[in-house]
Amino acid sequence: SSKIRLTSRPEGKPTPEDFSIDQVAHGELEPGQVRVSNEFISVDPYMRGRMNAGRSYVKPYGLGETITGGAVGRVVQSAADDLPEGTAVLHQHGWTDAVQDDASTFQAVPELDGLPLSLYLGLLGMPGLTAYVGLTRVAELRPGDSLFVSGAAGAVGTAVGQIARQLGAARLIGSAGSAEKVSLLKDKYGFDVALNYRDAPIREQLVRALEHEGVDVFYDNVGGDHLEAALEVMNDFGRLALCGAISSYNATERPAGPDNMGNMVTRRLRMQGFIVAEVASEHPEVTEEFRERMTGWLSAGDVTAEETVVEGLEHTVDAFVDMMRGGNTGKMVVRVG
Ligand code: NDP
Description:
By secondary structure, the chain is an alpha/beta fold.
């Protein structure tokens, strides 16, 4: 099989030269092991942070190390009773087309009637859960609330918009980086207001579009100018759930901070950053609650999975780089095998 490794730490934007793709041979299965052939692998923004040497909330990738992260596949050979051949599994072995390891490092997942396993990397997986915990446990969204989500056309963003609607949000406002994405948000996902931040400064656009209506909840995937824009339009006692700050991940200089933090005080706002895994362990019931509700919404047709699929393990690095600059709509995955 082939594995993609990090060979140098990117400065700013990652390039193909920062990675290598190498062949590895698998030996005979040892007792308790399985061999899994991947169907989809995930490219995620947090991986950019792990490519740096510095401290983050997950430890950095070592040089020469395979890029680990979410992937789904099927058991093709088994020496473990609990994971027979054919079982669909989710795991964290990352950017490879096949992997052999202890059965305990794989999680069996239910087959999805007519839907691809890639949903376990998106709407039914980590990004979907991130959207759900951010809305329900961090922002404490209430029916009737008005919501602004930045990065609205991405994996987490499309989940946030759809979940918020199901939870009774009265008004959805979103931002994204192209005219096509803005149309998608309005026409397919029913956003009341969708703004292209590349057209004009997002703060000006947002203030103009809202006409003094204000928002109760801000779900931030972008940071920087988007956080500043939100601070300008928050209603009193509004909540800001800070999920990510992708506008700074490839930056080589520190971005300027919002110039309107005083609104935190005058409007008595609450701002909270969060990491999905931590919220999920603080609220042991939330993962199962999310799975049940999301599966229900999916099978009722109340939510749909937006995906961008890139073909071939050899295009994984391109897919990652492209996702970081907005080449994806919804969840970006790579189909392998
Ligand atoms: P997305 O699918 O949203 O892909 C990233 C998107 O970021 C791109 O499509 C692009 O969309 C947008 N983007 C890139 N640069 C900029 C910029 N300078 N300004 C505005 N938008 C930009 O990724 P995910 O949904 O997987 O992740 C979204 C966010 O959520 C990230 O910040 C990520 O780190 C965070 N996250 C946090 C977690 C947590 O536990 N806290 C867990 C999972 C994700 P566009 O075309 O609109 O520019």
